[in-house]
Write a structure and sequence with these properties.
By secondary structure, this protein is an alpha/beta fold. The chain has ten helices and 14 strands.
């Protein structure tokens, strides 16, 4: 299904034309919803600390999670105590709940668990992001809140907005869901504070201030670090099998090839795929199995010894880091004065 969707959104598949009436209906519904917020008929909640939304106007992956981790580390390096809220997509839990060391992907979602394991930052998930954000303030005394996704979650008032775009795929056919990947029209980008372009190239004739982000791979890590393993991470010459259950699996497969890994089989799964040991063992057999860090958090409990994940770190310009910290510092001071 994901392959067909990508063909429609990012190719020239004829099904787009059949889906356009549904896109028109989607436009009417979302426009009405935004109008209700503007008229005050739907409530927006403003919080006592700055809120930074990291999201996009397209469905599917564009690099939000590495960006959130970068911002967390940047804020912590500058002496602040950030917290993160997320919907917890794919989780079975209800209400708002904090992510802990004992949380599972089924309880809180794969991306929130990955962010927490990487940063150990205070994190709360729940579909009602306002309640999740307030829990961060009440229980963890945070200085600033990062909202992982939620550009269209207007009930939570935000102070800064960052929109991600996949530099290779951009905005596809520029149609709204379901004929295209857009959650909102391109006009929405006029109101965000930064557009972060994942991988480039930057668009020269774009009036928006796009910031280039590169994802730098780190050394392979064992999926299950508790196993006393006789295996070492595969060398470039070793034949490997790769899997990915992310928004753009091909980006991951291409990155492995560019680094020199000998990938003999690459299998794309649906985003947020729930894995089973039997399926992955059948794919890998005796070969090393390579996956993303997001996939790894769902496989740790049953991972074989020769399964590995590739961590990536977002790299943004010092200019962006300075701009971001300057804006956040000003917002914190203004909130305290009010």
């Amino acid at each position: 299904m994901q392959k067909l969707v990508n063909q429609i959104w990012y190719g020239k598949h004829w099904l787009k034309w059949l889906l356009l009436p549904l896109s028109a209906l989607f436009a009417v519904i979302t426009s009405l919803r935004r109008l209700l917020f503007r008229l005050g008929l739907k409530t927006r909640s403003q919080l006592s600390v700055p809120v930074v939304v990291v999201g996009n106007i397209t469905a599917g992956g564009s690099g939000k999670t590495p960006t959130v981790i970068h911002l967390i580390n940047l804020l912590k390096a500058n002496g602040l105590q950030p917290g993160v809220v997320s919907r917890g997509y794919g989780s079975s839990g209800t209400g708002v709940r904090a992510v802990t060391n004992s949380s599972t992907p089924d309880e809180v979602g794969d991306e929130p668990l990955m962010i927490y394991q990487r940063t150990q930052v205070a994190m709360v998930v729940g579909s009602q992001r306002v309640l999740a954000a307030q829990k961060l303030i009440d229980d963890f005394n945070v200085d600033v809140i990062i909202c992982d996704d939620g550009l269209q979650h207007y009930a939570l008032e935000r102070d800064l907005e960052i929109a991600l775009v996949d530099g290779a795929r951009r905005y596809g056919n520029e149609c709204l869901i379901p004929a295209g990947p857009l959650r909102e029209g391109l006009w929405r980008l006029n109101s965000v504070d930064w557009i972060i372009n994942n991988g480039g190239p930057l668009v020269a004739d774009n009036n928006m201030n796009e910031q280039l982000m590169l994802l730098e791979p780190a050394p392979l890590q064992a999926v299950n670090t508790d196993l006393a393993t006789e295996f070492v991470a595969p060398n470039f010459d070793d034949e490997c099998v790769a899997i990915a259950g992310i928004g753009n699996p091909q980006r991951f497969f291409d990155s492995l090839t560019q680094q020199g890994f000998n990938v003999v089989k690459a299998v794309a799964f649906e985003d947020h795929q729930a894995y089973q040991a039997k399926t992955l063992n059948a794919l890998a057999k005796q070969s090393p199995l390579l996956m993303t860090e997001k996939d790894a958090v769902k496989c740790r409990e049953f991972a074989s010894q020769n399964w590995w994940y590739l961590p990536v770190n977002a790299k943004l310009s010092k200019e962006f880091d300075h701009q971001f910290m300057s804006r956040v510092t000003q917002l914190i001071q203004r909130k305290k004065e009010n």
